[in-house]
Amino acid sequence: MQTVGYKGFLLYGHSIEQQDGFAASGTVVQDGKLVQSSGVLAVYQSDEDAMDAGVRWAQEWIDFHA
Protein backbone atom coordinates (compact mmCIF):
# COMPACT_ATOMS: atom_id res chain seq x y z
CA MET A 1 0.00 0.00 0.00
CA GLN A 2 1.22 3.48 -0.88
CA THR A 3 0.15 6.52 1.20
CA VAL A 4 0.30 10.14 0.06
CA GLY A 5 -0.90 13.37 1.66
CA TYR A 6 -2.78 15.63 -0.79
CA LYS A 7 -4.79 18.82 -0.15
CA GLY A 8 -5.64 17.81 3.43
CA PHE A 9 -6.55 14.22 2.55
CA LEU A 10 -4.69 10.92 2.89
CA LEU A 11 -4.66 8.91 -0.30
CA TYR A 12 -4.02 5.20 -0.43
CA GLY A 13 -2.99 3.29 -3.52
CA HIS A 14 -3.65 -0.43 -3.20
CA SER A 15 -2.27 -3.37 -5.10
CA ILE A 16 -3.85 -6.81 -4.91
CA GLU A 17 -1.97 -9.67 -6.53
CA GLN A 18 -3.97 -11.51 -9.19
CA GLN A 19 -3.11 -14.46 -11.42
CA ASP A 20 -2.40 -12.11 -14.33
CA GLY A 21 -0.86 -9.13 -12.51
CA PHE A 22 -1.79 -6.65 -9.79
CA ALA A 23 -5.24 -5.10 -9.39
CA ALA A 24 -5.20 -1.37 -8.56
CA SER A 25 -7.58 0.55 -6.34
CA GLY A 26 -7.58 3.83 -4.45
CA THR A 27 -8.97 5.20 -1.22
CA VAL A 28 -9.50 8.77 -0.01
CA VAL A 29 -9.52 9.49 3.75
CA GLN A 30 -9.95 12.76 5.66
CA ASP A 31 -9.72 13.20 9.42
CA GLY A 32 -9.59 9.43 9.86
CA LYS A 33 -12.86 8.88 7.97
CA LEU A 34 -13.38 7.15 4.65
CA VAL A 35 -14.43 9.66 1.99
CA GLN A 36 -14.36 7.49 -1.15
CA SER A 37 -12.94 4.25 -2.48
CA SER A 38 -12.63 3.14 -6.08
CA GLY A 39 -13.06 -0.57 -6.48
CA VAL A 40 -10.75 -2.26 -9.01
CA LEU A 41 -9.44 0.28 -11.53
CA ALA A 42 -7.34 -1.97 -13.77
CA VAL A 43 -4.77 -4.75 -13.65
CA TYR A 44 -1.09 -3.83 -14.00
CA GLN A 45 2.05 -5.87 -14.51
CA SER A 46 3.80 -4.50 -11.41
CA ASP A 47 2.82 -3.90 -7.81
CA GLU A 48 4.24 -0.36 -7.94
CA ASP A 49 2.30 0.57 -11.09
CA ALA A 50 -0.92 -0.61 -9.49
CA MET A 51 -0.35 1.46 -6.33
CA ASP A 52 0.59 4.51 -8.41
CA ALA A 53 -2.65 4.16 -10.38
CA GLY A 54 -4.66 4.04 -7.16
CA VAL A 55 -3.04 7.25 -5.90
CA ARG A 56 -3.57 8.99 -9.27
CA TRP A 57 -7.25 8.03 -9.20
CA ALA A 58 -7.59 9.42 -5.65
CA GLN A 59 -5.89 12.70 -6.65
CA GLU A 60 -8.21 13.07 -9.62
CA TRP A 61 -11.23 12.32 -7.45
CA ILE A 62 -10.24 15.09 -5.00
CA ASP A 63 -9.54 17.56 -7.80
CA PHE A 64 -13.00 16.94 -9.23
CA HIS A 65 -15.06 16.67 -6.01
CA ALA A 66 -13.32 18.72 -3.31
Explain this structure.
With 66 residues, the protein is of the alpha+beta class. It has one domain (2-65). Helix content is 29%, strand content 50%. The protein has 1 helix and 5 strands; from the N terminus they run βββββα. The chain has one helix at 47-65; strands spanning 2-6, 9-18, 21-30, 33-37, 42-44. Strands 1, 2, 3, 4 and 5 form a 5-stranded antiparallel sheet that branches. The longest helix has 19 residues, at 47-65. The radius of gyration is 11 Å and the shape is elongated. The protein starts with a strand and ends with a helix.
What would the keywords be for this entry?
single chain, elongated, 66 residues, alpha+beta, 5-stranded antiparallel β-sheet, 50% strand
